[in-house]
């Protein structure tokens, strides 16, 4: 089965063609980062309009790269949520229209399920069941993933997501957009031990997380030094390191508790923040002590992309799921509401 995947939930236009026998046949991604950087963050209306401009050329590019015509596509998968309503409608509208025109089934895909399944694109990807940590700009949650669609919440952030906190800390220090990668790069130049930031909600039981207080603590530290304008390059690097260490340690502690609670032997870490090198190093070290194997997506699949949507869609189409003609998107869509499609 060959499935065309379309991702348009935010500021990345992603398209990919996945074959259930041969794997990924082609993919293309256009990032809107340069356009939104001038505004310090994503402007929803601009994002939607750019998806309209980019989608059809990217689809033609992917089909050409794969040496595949529309008549060889067996299904279309599109991100139906969560995300920006207008951006989602562009991808869903194009995806559903193509499927109707080509006479093939379509299937809506949950954006976070795409991230969760992205490590399975790798040759040595994990089998169900596993525990999953999904960390991105909009989500930070721990799940007990028992089967396709059977995702049971273990804990989540009660306020800011980890990736959101990274971006806001970057903005506090005037690092620009997108902030997460810039904070991580700056942290590599920081002096360990100059600042010690709190590890939120790790002094109490449970798997819920919080990053808002850590963000506030960072802001107070910046203000104590005279504000963002007064910071030296070394000040910024030291603050970035202290913030990153606190955020990463919090995630590692919660993952360790999740593995203790479930008794699981496999941990999947996915989403944009899963590309963070410090997080990978500390998680690998902590999980190795417990005999837990950690799985990550390839770096190209950590951020939003069409490949993860095509793959998730292929699994759901194979399990019999189909989309009706009415186009519906869900800007807010709890992952736990997905129906299990396990056989």
UniProtKB/TrEMBL annotation:
Supply the gene name: tsaD
Q: Which cofactor does it need?
A: Fe(2+)
Alphabetized HAMAP family for the sequence:
TsaD
The UniProt keyword set, sorted, is:
Acyltransferase, Cytoplasm, Iron, Metal-binding, Transferase, tRNA processing
What subcellular locations does the record give? Cytoplasm
The keyword Metal-binding is annotated on this UniProt entry: yes
Q: Which protein is depicted?
A: tRNA N6-adenosine threonylcarbamoyltransferase
Q: Which reaction does it catalyse?
A: L-threonylcarbamoyladenylate + adenosine(37) in tRNA = N(6)-L-threonylcarbamoyladenosine(37) in tRNA + AMP + H(+)
Q: Which organism is it from?
A: Alloalcanivorax marinus
The residues that hold substrate are 134-138, 167, 180, 276
């Amino acid at each position: 089965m060959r499935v065309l995947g379309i991702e348009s939930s935010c500021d990345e236009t992603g398209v990919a063609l996945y074959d259930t026998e041969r794997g990924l046949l082609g993919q293309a991604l256009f990032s809107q980062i340069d356009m939104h950087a001038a505004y310090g963050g994503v402007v929803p209306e601009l994002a939607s309009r750019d998806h309209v401009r980019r989608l059809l050329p990217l689809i033609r590019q992917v089909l050409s790269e794969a040496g595949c015509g529309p008549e060889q596509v067996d299904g279309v998968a599109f991100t139906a949520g969560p995300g920006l309503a207008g951006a989602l409608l562009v991808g869903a509208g194009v995806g559903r229209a193509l499927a109707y025109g080509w006479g093939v089934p379509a299937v809506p895909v949950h954006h976070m399920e795409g991230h969760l399944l992205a490590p399975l694109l790798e040759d040595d990807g994990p089998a169900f069941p596993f525990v999953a940590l999904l960390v991105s700009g909009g989500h930070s949650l721990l799940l007990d993933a028992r089967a396709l669609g059977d995702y049971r919440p273990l804990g989540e952030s009660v306020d800011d997501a980890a990736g959101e906190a990274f971006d806001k800390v970057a903005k506090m220090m005037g690092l620009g957009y997108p902030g997460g990668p810039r904070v991580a790069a700056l942290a590599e130049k920081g002096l360990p031990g100059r600042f010690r930031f709190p590890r939120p909600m790790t002094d109490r039981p449970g798997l819920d997380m919080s990053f808002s207080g850590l963000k506030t603590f960072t802001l107070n530290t910046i203000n104590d030094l005279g504000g963002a304008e007064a910071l030296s390059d070394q000040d910024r690097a030291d603050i970035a390191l202290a913030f990153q260490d606190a955020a990463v340690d919090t995630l590692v502690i919660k993952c360790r508790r999740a593995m203790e609670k479930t008794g699981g032997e496999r941990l999947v870490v996915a989403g944009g923040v899963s590309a963070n090198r410090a997080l990978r190093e500390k998680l690998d070290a902590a999980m190795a002590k417990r005999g837990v194997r950690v799985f990550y997506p390839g770096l190209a699949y950590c951020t939003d992309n069409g490949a993860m949507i095509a793959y998730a869609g292929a699994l759901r189409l194979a399990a019999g799921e189909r989309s009706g003609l009415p186009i519906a998107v869900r800007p807010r869509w709890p992952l736990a509401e997905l129906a299990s499609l396990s056989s």
